[in-house]
Structure formats: structure tokens, C-alpha cells
Amino acid sequence: MSVIVYSKPACVQCTATTRALDAKGISYDVVDLTQDDSAMSRVTEWGYRQAPVVEANGNHWSGFRPDMIAQLA
Fold it and tell me: Which is it for strands 53-56 and 3-7: parallel, antiparallel or unpaired?
């Protein structure tokens, strides 16, 4: 399973998301949206305007979503 967390610096919801993934033992990659223009374009094309955006198993969502993280475990 591939999990990508599109994040930005000093983002409280981003930190909560990565901590929840860590707690569930789910591995992930973090992409900094402030440093990666193509990633920023991708998430805005998906319609998101806030971080984090999580992409997993072909699905994606925005914000801290413990319900969605639990489905990955």
C-alpha cells in the first residue's frame, strides 16, 4: 500500500495525521507542498485547498481524518 501525505510546514492537522499513521504502524511518504510545485498542482486539481491531503490506495482526502486512517490499518 502506498500512502502519501501532502503537507506544509507548521500544519497542526498534518502533524496529527502523521502521528495517527505512525500509531497505526502505517508507512507513508511526506511531500512538502511548499517545495513541490507539481504536487501542489495535483492536489489543487483534485479540488483541495487545505493540508494535509492524503493519497492512499487510489483514494484521497483532506484534513485530519482518523476515520479514514483507521480504514487503512
Answer: antiparallel
37-59: pLDDT as tens digits: 999 999 999 999 999 999 998 89
Question: Helix, strand, coil % (nearest 5) of the chain?
Answer: 40, 25, 40
pLDDT tens per residue, range 3-34: 999 999 999 999 999 999 999 999 999 999 99
* Residue 28 contacts residue 69 (beta carbons within 8 Å): no
User: Is the CATH code 3.30.360.10 the one for domain 3-71?
Assistant: no
Q: Which helix (H) or strand (E) holds 41?
A: helix 37-45
Domain coordinates of the chain in residue numbers? 3-71
User: CA angle, corner 7, sides to 55 and 64, nearest 5?
Assistant: 65
Q: What is the reported pTM?
A: 0.94
